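Batch manifest line 220
LIGAND: zinc ion
JOB: complex structure
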Amino acid sequence: MKNLIIAPSVLAADFAHLGSEVQMLQESKAQWIHIDVMDGVFVPNISFGFPVIDAIKKYTDKFLDVHLMIVQPEKYLEKFAQAGAHMITVHLEACPHIHRTIQQIKSLGCQAGVAINPGTPVHALQDILADVDLVLIMSVNPGFGGQKFISNAISKTKEVARMAKEAGNPTVFIEIDGGVSLSNAPALIEAGANALVAGSFVFNSKDPQETISQLVDLAK
Ligand code: DX5
Ligand code: ZN
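JOB STATUS: finished
ARTIFACT:
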């Protein structure tokens, strides 16, 4: 399989000690760092924005996987690119002109991802699959860390993997986000997921670096 990417979400970090938390991720086996931006409109919660991403960047040179849970993301894409995002993922539900938005992200020199909520059917991705670098399948309703995994993500993953091959984009990243742990990760990988976000499972564990290693080792 394509290398398995583990993307710990800093949403679950201790924000009062963000420097040392990011340093810990920098020294871990995680390949990406997942950054959850919430606007209080698209989702019922507000997380953080550009100054925090700027601060994170000072402690890591890892791939920054920015997940925008905001309405009208097109207004801010340039600022996220300048802030150092490597991947910018927008929600299909927030983008009436998803094709244009994806092209905008690419024109800024970033990789482009599209995310779908648990209630959005995978077939809605059909006509954008060939154009994206990543599909993010939400396995919780976005807005909060620490929620229970919604298992329809497994069958959705299988279907996206099949559709991606059919669309001529078999190497697309298929990322799962929400409630991911060592108990559901093997089934997700088996279904075709090749990028896993993990927030509370990593940060609430006794030894986050060891937990990250265990997730990374699932690829073996
Ligand atoms: C939820 C976010 C997730 C969240 C995952 O809206 O998109 O990235 O941080 O957290 P856990 O792994 O705790 O479900
Ligand atoms: Zn996320």
